[in-house]
Amino acid sequence: MIFGEEDSQADGGRKPPQQIRLDHSRMETVYANMFALSGSADEIAVYLGANSPLPGAQQPAIQLSHRLILLPQNAKRLMVALQQTVKAHEDRFGPIELPPQARPKNPDR
Q1: CA angle (75, 93, 100) in 5-degree steps
Q2: How far is residue 4's CA from residue 80's CA, in Å, rounded to a whole number?
Q3: What is the pLDDT of residues 38-70, one digit of tens each?
Q4: Which residues partner with 36 through β-bridges?
């Protein structure tokens, strides 16, 4: 069982969890401090990137590095897993504070 997926047989009985071996030999690690989301009825896409603003830049460029495309059901499983992980982190280390969102500057005001 992974992240709450139900494992049951057609007759309603339970079967033991399947053992899964995770092969991380070709895994890549990337740093992302920015994400964007898009989607359709069939998929949800998560775009990851790094924002390294240059001083005085009017329009900082954000370098997108990876796109993760998920079925909506798997996106929801990921959401639940992230919620549980963040809650466990906060239970252990304290609340994670989010700064208020900066409002775009309106030159007409």
Answers
A1: 65
A2: 9
A3: 999 999 999 999 987 777 777 777 889 999 999
A4: 47
Encoded tokens for 27: 């895994």
Q: Where are the domains of the chain?
A: 34-50+62-93
**CA atoms of 70 and 103, how far apart (whole Å):** 31
pLDDT at 108 over 90: no
- Label residue 63 exposed, middle or buried (CB < 10 Å: 0-12, 13-18, 19+): exposed
Instruction: Report residue 23 CA to chain centroid gap.
Output: 21
d(CA 98, CA 86): 13
